[in-house]
Amino acid sequence: MSYPEPRYLGERGQVSALLRPAPSQPDTGSGATSISYVAKQENTDGEFGLYKIDMEPRTKGATEHFHRTISESFYVLSGEILLYNGERWVTGGAGDFLYVPPGGLHAFQNDSDDPVSFLLLFTPGAPREEYFEQVAEYSQRSHEELKAFRIRHDQYNTTDMLDD
Fold first, then answer.
1. What pLDDT was estimated at residue 162?
2. Helix (H, G, I), strand (E, B) or coil at 44
3. pLDDT of residue 161 exceeding 80
4. Fewest beta carbons within 10 Å, which of 46, 138, 140, 148?
5. φ and ψ at 144, to 5 degrees?
6. What is the pLDDT of residues 122-148, one digit of tens each?
7. What pTM was computed for the model?
8. Phi-psi region of 23 (alpha: psi -120 to 50; beta: other; left: phi over 0)
9. Judging by beta carbons within 10 Å of its beta carbon (0-12, 13-18, 19+), is residue 51 exposed, middle or buried?
10. Rounded distance, CA 3 to CA 93, Å?
């Protein structure tokens, strides 16, 4: 395996780093889950998105689903989270990492009595913010509207596949 083809062809480098100060409040969230956008795809030239997710104890997360266009990775910062790896539920603790390639079934939830904090990395970058900001609202709409919203955001829930 080798490095990819160069994308910067200059000789001396350039001033282009981006520092995002830690936010005083999360960027979005619904109920017992809050999300801070560490790096949005628009800030990484579409290379990746990185979010910090904090979940209160006994909080449901995403049900079993897959993505067609992005991979997703979970890195646990603190607490314990249940992660579905496509075959079974596994407990992830601080320092644990789960990689899910495109098409990989996965889900997550906090079944513990303590809060959990983890990083969510997806590549390549995609405009996922709208999904997290509006999924609670769409969950109150018709099943057809929710399914169309999910598909528009590359979120294919296995329960939706049973409808087809």
1. 63
2. coil
3. no
4. 140
5. -65, -40
6. 999 988 989 988 988 999 999 999 999
7. 0.88
8. beta
9. buried
10. 32
Q: Which residues contact 24 (CB under 8 A, 6 or more apart)?
A: none
**Nearest C-alpha neighbor of 116 from the set 87, 91, 85:** 91
| Ordered domains of the chain (ranges, CATH) | 28-159 (2.60.120.10)
The reported pLDDT for the residue numbered 1 is 86
As a whole number of angstroms, the distance between CA 155 and CA 106 comes to: 11
Give me the torsion for CA of 15, 40, 30, 59, rounded to 10°. Answer: -100
Token duo for residue 137: 């609202």
Q: Which of 76-80, 113-117, 132-136, 147-151 has the lowest mean pLDDT?
A: 132-136
Q: What are the tokens at 104?
A: 């990989």
Q: Cα separations (Å) of 108 from 36, 62, 111, 118?
A: 17, 6, 9, 11
